[in-house]
Amino acid sequence: MAKFMNGQLLKRLNLLQSFILLCVLTLMAVLGVITLEFAWAESLRKRFGDADWVLTSLVAAVLLTVTAGIVTMAVLFYRWKLQRPLEILKQASENISANDLSFPISYDSRDEMGELIAVFENMREQLERNMKTLWRSVEERKQLNAIFAHDLRTPLSVLKGYAEFLATYLPEKKLSDEKVLDLIHTMNLHILRLESYAEAMASIQKLEDVPVNRRPTETTTLTALLNDSAEQLTRQFGKRFVSSMEGASIEINVDTYIVMQVFENLVANGVRYAVSQVNVRYVIQDGALHITVTDDGPGFSDEALRKAVLPFYRGEMWDANEHHGLGLYICKVLCEKHEGGLRIENHPHGGGSVSASFGMELIKS
User: Fold this and answer.
1) Residue 285 belongs to what H/E stretch?
2) Hey, which of 17, 66, 294, 332 would disulfide with 342, CB 3.0 to 4.6 Å?
3) Which contacts (CB < 8 Å, 24+ apart) does range 107-113 have?
4) Rounded to whole angstroms, how far apart are CA atoms 334 and 324?
5) pTM above 0.70, yes or no
6) Tell me: the pLDDT tens digits for 290-306?
């Protein structure tokens, strides 16, 4: 009977069908035992006569058999149909209470308990997906806040450099009115950029949501603005800055703020590694604006070449306590948003080289 009950039959029956089957089997077994008890009582009567204790023994044996049958049926029903699924649900509940949702639960039966466990598993999977989504959202927001703080540092450093420059030379009357107005105009562009960046960061949930707003601009105007920022950054660290532009000035359609953000990150990264000089080369080729920043430092290690664009990778930085390892990762994401890319390598003559490309449109005159 046990071998039969442990087979596939009970797994295909629902609880009611299983209960009825156990009742029928138990009833058959009880009736069989009672039949044997009556035969036993008859043999006692023939041997000892119509003694009262024979009838009493028979009644007691029948009652005991019926009770044992009911208890046995209940135990078997619990053991074969309820015990394992209840243990599975209990363990699953304990895991969920401990914030552990990484466990699968299954029960190979087609009865109501199997359906209940299947529903419970669906609930667990949904909870796990919701928790992963929530944690991913929290991590992306934390990362975005870190990126925001990191990227504010560079334009603020540029503005600080302009302010110090004006404070140093303006009282001595060494600056013409035209130069002062030019510096104020450039500083205003950086302030507008910071305002735009702050508004964008307040409205997005992750870096990939940064909008790309292309506007027409002359390459000479753009490169002059970029070179001015780079000179301010390199001057603060006592380094030289050299730039070159291939080709004549043309009008292109790019997001100036994104280009500046990537450019300043690359220059700031080059300044940290450079011994004395940072070089920038501008090229317009294959429908893209290419900006290559090189330095005369030790270059990238093999590990850095593989991991430099990963978020929060720092490497062995002299200012590791201040640098969050986000600069090149930011550049990579923003370049890709602008239909371009980022390439990191070592220059043939020594030093690191990082090339950023931005997809653009030429504006025909």
Assistant:
1) strand 277-285
2) 332
3) 108/11, 109/10, 109/11, 109/85, 110/11, 110/12, 110/14, 111/11, 111/13, 111/14, 111/15, 111/18, 111/81, 112/14, 112/15, 113/15, 113/81, 113/82, 113/85, 113/86
4) 17
5) no
6) 999 999 988 888 887 87
Q: Measure the N-to-C terminal CA separation of the chain; round to a whole number of Å.
A: 94
Counting other chains too, the contacts that 229-232 makes at CB distance below 8 Å and 24 or more residues apart are 229/155, 229/158, 229/190, 229/260, 229/263, 229/264, 229/267, 230/263, 230/264, 230/267, 230/278, 230/280, 232/157, 232/158, 232/161, 232/162
Instruction: Indicate the pairing of strand 251-254 with strand 361-362.
Output: antiparallel
d(C-alpha 196, C-alpha 203), whole Å: 11
What is the spatial distance between Cα 177 and Cα 161, in angstroms, rounded to a whole number?
A: 19
Question: 252 with 363: CB under 8 angstroms?
Answer: yes
Range with the poorest average pLDDT among 171-175, 272-276, 347-351, 355-359: 171-175
Structural domains of the chain, ranges and CATH numbers in brackets: 2-110 (no CATH), 138-362 (3.30.565.10)
Each residue's pLDDT tens digit, 72-118: 888 888 888 888 888 888 888 888 888 788 888 888 777 888 888 88
Quote the tokens at residue 326.
């986000």
| 341-346: strand order across its sheet | 240-245, 277-285, 288-295, 352-359, 341-346
- Residues 106, 117: contact at Cβ < 8 Å? yes
Alpha carbon 274 to chain centroid distance? 34
Neighbour tally for 145: CB within 10 Å: 11
C-alpha separations of 183 from 37, 164, 175, 189, 235 in Å: 113, 12, 10, 10, 16
CB-based contacts of 139, cutoff 8 Å, min separation 6: none
Reduced to 3 states (helix: H, G, I; strand: E, B; else coil), residue 309 is: coil
How far is C-alpha 259 from the chain's CA centre?
Answer: 27
Q: For residues 71 and 276, what is the distance between their CA atoms, to the nearest angstrom?
A: 91
DSSP H/E element including 4: helix 2-5
